[in-house]
């Protein structure tokens, strides 16, 4: 079940520093000028088996993905009551709905008659009910079995006992979170208030879902996540695209429960820029969140990138990339800006970051590399793994 919310879909104006949360403002104010940024002399390692071993993957599935709430989609994919969205990314077929009262639900996409998938598309649509294509059993958006043809042929069947199977869900920070394991005890404690306040300040829930693209990658999900936890690669891997926009210095990193927030000044950053009235803060500062376990939020001057990285096998992942904009593209300037931004960001993430994950997997799969080595510009990666390992019951790591 979930909290009532009615996202408006793209009504935000320019974000200035004072529109951010107190915690974000504190973090941004702590960023030193680039020439005062410290050097982090630190090396950590991890065994490469964590990207190759089926047993490790199974433990992650059991202790993390089937237990903790995971983001499934932004709220704006179900913007209005009566919205329906099929979702297959995690390998658990889901139907997400927003019922008449505005409550979000997550159901297993399986008919109570003979298990058939009910919603076959992953494109959002509006409907009063959903109907199974096989024999037309029909369900209300709160999951109740509303009707079945030739009901007299099913003596003794009580409709109220044959609603869709519902998973525990919650809507917070503009995201829909679901506990994918049906047996998992209800626990949304990792959906931290401070994180939700940050995401609300960024306007995720009020944003417009300008673009969505699904990537199927031949890489372990953690290799897909890693570049979003470090700045070391930015001037190298992205040398032909966005590399020069960023400085080669450590980000200011804060942990929010199991989550990570990194804030960094753009290449030309000076702290005095923060006090220019009315300035779009996203031009000066980049926020990068790693929402535990598998979701990334990155801010850009005119849009926000949301990536949900879904493990499908030890060397296979699916990424739903969403470009969220503060307004719909309702004028030629916005249309042009958003279209160019979308093209650029798909190129940067798709052909640079995601490709890096795939070529890492390819090299690791040779078996000749025993350990990953993380340096001072990559310290957030082993920090993140410490959290993951704590859920997996591993205490030892370097
Ligand atoms: S399987 Fe759905 S109505 Fe028969
Ligand atoms: Fe990158």
In short:
This protein is an alpha+beta fold.
Report on the structure:
The protein has 398 residues and is α+β, with helices and mostly antiparallel strands. It folds into two domains: 17-68 and 193-392, Naphthalene 1,2-dioxygenase Alpha Subunit, Chain A, domain 1; 81-179, 3-layer Sandwich (Rieske Iron-sulfur Protein), CATH 2.102.10.10. The protein has eight helices and 19 strands. The protein has helices spanning 22-29, 54-65, 193-202, 221-225, 234-237, 281-284, 332-364, 380-392, and strands at 44-47, 70-74, 83-87, 94-98, 104-108, 125-126, 129-131, 138-140, 145-147, 166-172, 175-179, 208-217, 252-256, 259-265, 285-291, 295-300, 303-313, 316-325, 371-374. A seven-stranded antiparallel β-sheet has the order 2-11-10-5-4-3-6, with no helix packed on it. A seven-stranded antiparallel β-sheet has the order 12-18-17-16-15-14-13, with helices on both faces. Strands 7-8-9 form a three-stranded antiparallel β-sheet, with no helix packed on it. A hairpin with a 6-residue loop joins strand 3 (83-87) and strand 4 (94-98). The protein is globular. The chain binds FE2/S2 (inorganic) cluster and fe (ii) ion. Fe (ii) ion is lined by residues 227, 233-234, 238, 353.
């Amino acid at each position: 079940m979930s909290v009532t919310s009615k996202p408006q879909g793209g009504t935000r104006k320019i974000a200035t520093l004072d529109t951010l949360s107190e915690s974000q403002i504190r973090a941004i104010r702590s960023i030193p000028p680039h020439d005062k940024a410290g050097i982090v002399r630190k090396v950590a390692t991890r065994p490469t088996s964590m990207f190759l071993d089926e047993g490790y993957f199974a433990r992650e599935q059991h202790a993390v993905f089937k237990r903790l709430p995971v983001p499934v989609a932004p709220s704006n994919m179900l913007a209005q009551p009566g919205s329906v969205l099929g979702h297959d990314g995690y390998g658990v077929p889901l139907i997400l709905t927003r019922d008449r009262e505005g409550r979000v639900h997550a159901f297993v996409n399986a008919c109570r008659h003979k298990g058939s998938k009910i919603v076959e598309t992953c494109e959002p649509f509006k409907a009063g009910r959903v109907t199974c294509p096989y024999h037309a059993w029909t369900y209300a958006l709160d999951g109740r079995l509303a009707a079945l043809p030739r009901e007299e042929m099913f003596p003794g069947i009580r409709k109220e006992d044959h609603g869709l199977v519902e998973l525990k869900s919650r809507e917070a920070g503009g995201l829909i979170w679901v506990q994918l394991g049906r047996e998992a005890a209800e626990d949304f404690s990792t959906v931290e208030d401070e994180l939700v306040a940050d995401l609300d300040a960024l306007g995720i829930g009020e944003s417009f879902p300008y673009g969505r693209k699904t990537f199927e990658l031949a890489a372990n999900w953690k290799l897909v996540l890693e570049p979003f936890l470090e700045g070391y690669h930015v001037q190298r891997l992205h040398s032909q695209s966005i590399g020069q926009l960023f400085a080669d210095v450590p980000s200011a990193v804060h942990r929010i429960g199991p989550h990570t927030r990194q804030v960094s000044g753009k290449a030309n950053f000076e702290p005095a820029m923060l006090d220019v009235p009315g300035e779009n803060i996203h031009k000066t500062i980049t926020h990068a969140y790693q929402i535990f376990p598998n979701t990334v939020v990155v801010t850009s001057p005119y849009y926000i990138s949301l990536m949900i990285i879904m493990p499908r096998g030890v060397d296979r992942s699916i990424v739903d990339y969403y470009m969220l904009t503060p307004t719909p593209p309702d004028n030629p300037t916005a249309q042009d800006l958003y279209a160019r931004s979308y093209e650029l960001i798909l190129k940067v993430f798709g052909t640079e970051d995601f490709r890096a994950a795939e070529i890492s997997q390819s090299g690791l799969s040779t078996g000749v590399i025993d350990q990953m080595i993380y340096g001072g510009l990559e310290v957030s990666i082993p920090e993140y793994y410490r959290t993951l390992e704590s859920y997996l019951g591993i205490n030892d790591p370097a």
